[in-house]
Specification:
Layout lengths: L1 H10 L2 H23 L6 H9 L12 H35 L11 E4 L4 H11 L8 E5 L3 H12 L2 H4 L2 E5 L5 H6 L7 E4 L8 H16 L6 E7 L2 H8 L9 E7 H10 L13 E7 L3 H13 L4 H5 L3 E7 L2 H11 L1 H4 L4 E5 L2 E5 L11 E7 L5 H11 L4 E7 L4 H8 L4 H5 L3 E5 L5 H8 L5 E5 L15 H14 L7 H6 L3 H12 L1 H8 L5 H5 L3 H21 L7 H4 L5 H8 L15 H9 L1 H6 L9
Parallel strand pairs: 1-2, 1-4, 2-3, 4-5, 5-6, 7-8, 7-12, 8-11, 9-11, 12-13, 13-14
Antiparallel strand pairs: 9-10
Helix pairs in contact: 2-3, 2-4, 3-4, 11-12, 12-25, 20-22, 25-28
Length: 614
């Protein structure tokens, strides 16, 4: 039993080893001092023999045997055992550090929970982002720390920056591990998870609950960015109120949505249809990226010509097993498709759905689901037909999961696609160099690359909500009781659903500016006539309807929309919004759309804003 206890002590780490060695050294020294009095040895003689065996024998013949025992104990304890223990301590420290098992008392650090593929891009940006200059970076992952560290440090090739990174090994949904990461003193938290997790979203949600518990409700606010994979998870958060007392300033991001937003919002990829034309967006693939491409596009691709000529934007999915995928997509967005035109198309014909007459026909986005691969003769023929159709302007997105497959599809489209310089977006999750070389050759028309592999990827998620916060602040200043003292205070007090709605509103502004030939300046907006302002407001209303229907809100039948007395009850209790209606029906509610339109310079460039009396 004694041997097992000693072995356990020696294996428990450097602290206990040193403590037990110190106790043993002191205990023996005291015992020797007490026994030394018998032979006339004082404590200095004992200490001399104990520390330095070379002093044996001391000139006292009567105590030679006792002096020998003291000397041998000194050799054993202070020379052999002490060296062994210190060597073991240093070995344990080194091994524990390499494996990410040591913990430190950080303050003001950036904490990244997870080691997914997002990590390398995030660290690359932190290398050059002034906001993170000099900050310690703590990464906690359940992966093999040594392997991950080696890969990341090779990729970064910056020893000074890598010295600022500390690696912890631990499960992010474990309270003990999170406590060791000093959650409450972090300057920012990124909850990204690991690659290929079966329960990524569920684990992140559990971790969020633990983070809120550990942070408490006193102290400075902590920005916390949480990535989610599934639209279903986002749907759940649409119905949930935010935790008002938490220090965490939580931002929920569906990663595939944000990847698409960076192409559609921050570049001019989407062509603006000319007068009496409609936009036709063709999406190849059946992945989370393809679904995100469609839903993000449906929230921003709204144009003024619909009010004049009824030209709806058409979003076409192309792929195999499309009937099954259509059924799932429609079921996941029932509120939207109840009011939408959509079609199932095969080489043999098409089956169409029209909006329920009791609700009306007022949405400006139409859907198609084509049962065929984009390489098939049927789709290739259709692509050429669409290119030659003067009534539409075409754009294509290749959204399969595998980069190599996307590259193959993109470089073997019909020659007419390249000759007409049709915009073609190709999703590249990693290693986009070959795609970039193909683009540089000039042989492939309007092909562009998007996704995590692109240099413009905002891996730190810093710009995602900036404009959305300003949209919400405008509403808060106009309708808040009382208005919030700052943009961040207003943002922290609203639900996740309202945050996403504000972000979608801000995302649509660049296309509005291009559609109306405007600049994001006060001078440009102030010169607009009432007719153009009204047209812009109507476009914003149609955009808002697409966004709120995707969030799960439902419309009311025409016969019930005029009854406004139950507006709040229907909205909060039944998720029915009476403003999901034609623009001509909403009356004074159009003022909310006008607030956005007249404050575009503030939303885009943070210029002075104006509000309206509520």
């Amino acid at each position: 039993m004694l041997r097992r206890k000693i072995d356990r002590i020696l294996s428990e780490g450097e602290g206990k080893q040193l403590l037990w060695l110190t106790v043993l050294v002191l205990a023996l020294f005291i015992i020797f001092c007490l026994l030394g009095r018998i032979w006339g040895l004082d404590w200095t003689d004992i200490l001399t023999l104990y520390l330095d065996p070379g002093n044996f024998p001391i000139d006292h013949r009567a105590n030679d045997y006792f002096s020998l025992i003291v000397t041998l104990c000194g050799i054993l304890i202070l020379s052999a055992l002490l060296v062994s223990v210190f060597s073991n301590v240093f070995t344990n420290i080194s091994e524990a550090y390499r494996k990410g098992e040591r913990r430190y008392r950080f303050n003001g650090h950036v904490l990244i929970l997870g080691g997914s593929r997002m990590l390398s891009d995030m660290l690359k940006q932190m290398q050059h982002q002034g906001e993170y200059e000099g900050k310690d970076i703590v990464i906690m992952t359940c992966c093999d720390v040594e392997t991950l560290r080696e890969r990341i440090e090779t990729m970064l090739d910056d020893k000074r920056f890598c010295n600022r990174i500390t690696w912890y090994r631990g499960e992010r949904d474990n309270e003990e591990f999170l406590s060791g990461a000093r959650i409450g003193t972090a300057a920012a938290i990124y909850l990204i998870g690991e690659d290929c997790e079966q329960a990524h979203d569920a684990t992140n949600i559990k971790t969020l609950d633990l983070l809120e518990k550990l942070c408490g409700n006193s102290g400075p606010a902590i920005p916390c960015f949480i990535t989610l994979d599934e639209q279903t998870t986002m749907d759940v958060f649409h119905y949930l109120p935010k935790t008002s007392h938490s220090r965490l300033r939580t931002e929920l991001i569906r990663t595939s949505d944000y990847v698409v937003e960076q192409l559609l919002v921050y570049t001019d990829f989407i062509p603006i249809p000319k007068k009496e034309q409609y936009l036709h967006l063709v999406i190849a693939g059946n992945t989370s990226i393809s679904h995100s491409f469609a839903t993000v596009a449906s929230q921003i691709c709204h144009f003024p010509d619909y009010a004049v000529n009824g030209k709806r934007t058409i979003i076409t999915f192309v792929g195999t097993d499309m009937k099954n995928q259509m059924d799932k997509f429609v079921a996941n967005h029932q509120s939207l498709f109840q009011l939408s035109h959509y079609h199932y198309v095969t080489p043999e014909g098409r089956v169409s759905h029209v909006p329920d007459k009791s609700y009306g026909d007022f949405l400006d986005v139409e859907w198609e689901f084509v049962e065929s691969s984009i390489e098939s003769p049927f789709v290739r023929y259709e692509l050429c037909r669409w290119i030659n159709d003067s009534g539409q302007t075409l754009a294509i997105a290749i959204c399969n999961q595998e980069p190599a497959e996307n590259l193959k599809v993109a470089l073997h489209l019909p020659e007419e696609v390249y000759a007409a310089k049709v915009p073609v977006a190709v999703y590249q999750q990693e290693h986009g160099q070959l795609m970039e070389k193909a683009i540089a050759s000039g042989m492939y028309g309007g092909i562009v690359c998007f996704g995590e592999a692109t240099e413009s990827n905002d891996a730190l998620l810093l710009r995602r909500s900036l404009r959305g916060k300003r949209v919400n602040y405008l509403y808060d200043q106009a309708y808040g009781t009382p208005p919030a003292p700052s943009v961040d205070h207003a943002w922290a007090s609203i639900s996740f659903a309202h945050q996403l709605s504000s972000i979608a509103s801000a995302n649509s502004i660049p296309i509005k500016l291009r559609s109306f030939g405007l600049e994001a300046t006060k001078a440009s907006v102030d010169t607009l006539d009432s007719g153009t302002l009204d047209s812009l407001s109507e476009v914003e209303h149609r955009r808002w309807m697409s966004s709120i229907l995707l969030m799960g809100y439902r419309a009311a039948p025409k016969a019930e929309r005029a009854e406004r007395s139950r507006f709040k009850e229907l909205k909060t209790k039944y998720f029915i919004h009476l403003d999901i209606a034609p623009y001509q029906e909403i009356g004074s509610e159009a003022e909310k759309d006008l607030i956005i339109v007249k404050n575009i310079p503030y939303i885009i460039k943070e210029e002075t804003y104006e509000t309206f009396e509520s």
